[in-house]
Amino acid sequence: MIYLCLPDDKPRLLTFYLALEEWAARTLHGEYFFTWVVPPTVICGRNQAIELEVDLAYCREHGIEVYRRKSGGGSVFADQGNIMFSYVTSSDNVATTYGHYTQAVVAMLRGLGLDASDTSRNDILVDGLKVSGNAFYHLPGRSIVHGTMLFDTDLEHIARALTPSRAKLLSKGIKSVESRVTMLHDRLPDMTVDAFRDYAARTMCDSRRVLTDDEVAAVEAIEQTYLDPAFRWGAKSRAGAKTVRIDGVGEISVSVEMCDAIIKEVFLTGDFFLLGDLDVEVLARLRGVKREREALETALACVDMPYIIRNLSTNQFINLLIEDEPKQNYG
Fold first, then answer.
1. Nearest 5°: phi and psi at 61?
2. In terms of CATH architecture, what is 2-232?
3. Position 111 pLDDT exceeds 70
4. Where, residue-wise, is CATH 3.30.930.10 in the chain?
5. Which residues does residue 56 pair with via DSSP β-bridges, in sequence order?
6. What is the mean pLDDT of residues 273-283?
7. How far is CA 166 from CA 247, 312, 318, in A?
8. Average pLDDT value for residue range 192-215
9. What is the full DSSP assignment across 142-203?
10. CB-based contacts of 27: which residues, under 8 Å, 6+ apart?
11. CATH 3.30.390.50 region(s) of the chain?
12. What is the pLDDT of residues 125-176, one digit of tens each?
C-alpha cells in the first residue's frame, strides 16, 4: 500500500480530501492510503437531509463547517482530534474491500497493544467501544473506504452539532456518546496526533508518493463538485415522507410523488450505505411505473438491490414504496 502525501502543509477544507480520494480512485492504480485532520466540521452522508441531521444554529455559533460526502452512512463530526482515514483500491467486491481495510486498521491498532476489533456493519472498536466509523464509496473498478479515528476529539461538539433521530443513541446527549465511544489518547497518553498518524502510515504502507503541483490543481478542480451548493445542500426532507429503520440497512425516509396512479418521482433520504448509482440504476426505472407490486417487481427485475443500498432487499424496497404506514425493522 502507498501513502499519499501533499507537497505542502497548507490548511485545507474537508472537501479537498474528499476530492483527493476521488482523484486517486479515478487516476491511480493500486492501493493508496492517507490520513488527514481538519478544523471542526460536520460531514453528512450522500442521502441525508442536513436540516434533520445537523444543528445548524449550533454549528454557526461555534464556527463548525458543514459539508456532504458522496458515500452513504450517517453524519460525523471531525476536528484536529478526530483523524480521518482514506483508503483507495482497485476492487469491485464490497465485502472483500471493506474487510481488507478494517482488518488492516485493527492490526495497526493491535500493534500498539490495544484490544481492537471490527464489527459487521461499519465500526472499529477498542475494548468494545467505538473508536472508528467508516463508509464506502464505489466508482467503476475502484473503491473508496473512509472513516474516523477518535483520538482526542470534542465530545460536546459531537453530541450537540449532530441531531440524529430519536431512534439513535446520540439523541440522548453527551453521556450517551461517552458510554459508547472511546478516545485513543486515553489509552495512549504519551502519543500525539502527529505521532499516531506517522505510526499508522508506517504500519499500513510500504512506500510514499508525493503529489505534484499539477496533481493538486486537478484535485482542487474536483473539489468544486463538493462545494457546489446544489450538492452540498441538495438532499431535503419532504413533507409526508415516511421513515423506517431496517436492521442492517439503517434509516430510510421515502416519499413518492404520483400523477394519477403512476409514479412521477421517488425521493429517498437516510443514513443507509450507498454502494451503486441509486438515481440511474434504481430511481430512474421507477418513473412512469404503476405503484403496485407486480409493476414494481418488473421494473426492478434486473436490479441487484443489495449492491445499490447495502443489505436492502428488493422486497423490502418495494414494501417501502407501496405501504402507507411505516413499520420498524422491515422484513
1. -65, -35
2. 2-Layer Sandwich (3.30)
3. yes
4. 2-232
5. none
6. 86
7. 16, 22, 25
8. 97
9. EEEEEEEEESS--HHHHHHHB---TTSGGGG-HHHHHHHB--HHHH-TT--HHHHHHHHHHH
10. 215, 218
11. 242-322
12. 999 999 998 888 888 888 899 999 999 998 888 888 987 554 444 444 445 5
User: Residue 46 and residue 128: Cα distance in Å, rounded?
Assistant: 28
Residue-wise pLDDT for 206-227, tens only, equals 999 999 999 999 999 999 999 9
Q: Which three cell numbers stand for residue 264?
A: 412521477
Calculate mean pLDDT across residues 301-329: 81
Find out whether 149 and 78 touch, Cβ atoms under 8 Å. Answer: no
Tell me the three state secondary structure of residue 62.
coil
Give the span between the Cα atoms of 192 and 132, in whole angstroms: 17
DSSP 8-state class, residue 282? I
Q: How many CB atoms lie within 10 A of CB 148?
A: 23
CATH architecture under which domain 242-322 falls: 2-Layer Sandwich (3.30)
Phi, psi of 300 (to 5 degrees): -105, 10
Contact status, residue 160 vs residue 175, Cβ threshold 8 Å: no
Select from 88, 101, 90 the least CA-distant residue to 32.
Answer: 88
Cβ atoms of 114 and 187 within 8 Å: the answer is: yes
Q: Write the pLDDT tens digit of every residue in 66-104.
A: 999 988 888 899 999 999 999 999 877 777 888 889 999
